[in-house]
Amino acid sequence: MTRLCWATPERHESLGSTNVEALTDPRPGRVVVADHQSAGQGRRGRAWSSPPGTCLAVSAVLPPVPAPVVGWLPLAAGVAVLDALEASRWPVRAVLKWPNDVLLEDGPAPGKLCGVLVQGADTGALVVGVGVNVDHDRDQLPVPTATSWRLARGGAPLPDGARELFLEDYLRRLRELHAALARGSAGPVRTAYLARCATLGRAVVVHRPDGSRVSGEAVGLDEGGALVVRGRGGAVGVHHAGDVEHLRDQ
């Protein structure tokens, strides 16, 4: 198997959407980066945007992976973001909420720090987009449940070079995890993800794409990365998509 090599990242002060730009020429190894998105995309078609200069949006084009493990790719991206944040000189302690939201649960500024969106190209390549709230003040956040890297550090702006170092660490880790998936092995992603996932073992509500809701305890992930929830009556359901709400401990 040929080792994936990243092209020099294409840097933009502003784009409508880094994923949309990456999909115009989805060559494996291409990386599109912007400090501002005016029409970013989230899961289930949600719009995502930020004030100029406050975010770091990264879209990386990857070769396809075998169908049985493709569901692990968004989870792998969340792990890569988390590892890059913790490896930085300005670390924050975050967790993962299924499927791939990066959350700060403790400290002065809890909330969602990063989201992930994976889209397929007509060529079979996969575009992995991440959007990190980097330099937002509290009144600049898109929703009250969001947070930023700056706020997690007590409001101090990130030093020069922080974005570049994060990008290097993130791309290195994403390449490692993708390599395992490309071999058909979800083991490294599963191990890393389970060690950081705050969803498992908790009472949750799954808001499904059809508008219905399922309540219960998140008890595991299946072989494809889907969330397994045991309902109050004992019935077990497997959820491949949806938004998860963590309930407070009873």
TrEMBL record:
SUPFAM superfamilies: Class II aaRS and biotin synthetases (SSF55681). Keywords: Biotin, Ligase. The keyword Cell inner membrane does not apply. Transmembrane segments: none annotated. This is biotin--[biotin carboxyl-carrier protein] ligase. Residues 1-182 form the BPL/LPL catalytic domain. It comes from the Bacteria. One of its GO terms (cellular component) is cytoplasm. It comes from Serinicoccus chungangensis. Coiled coil: none annotated.
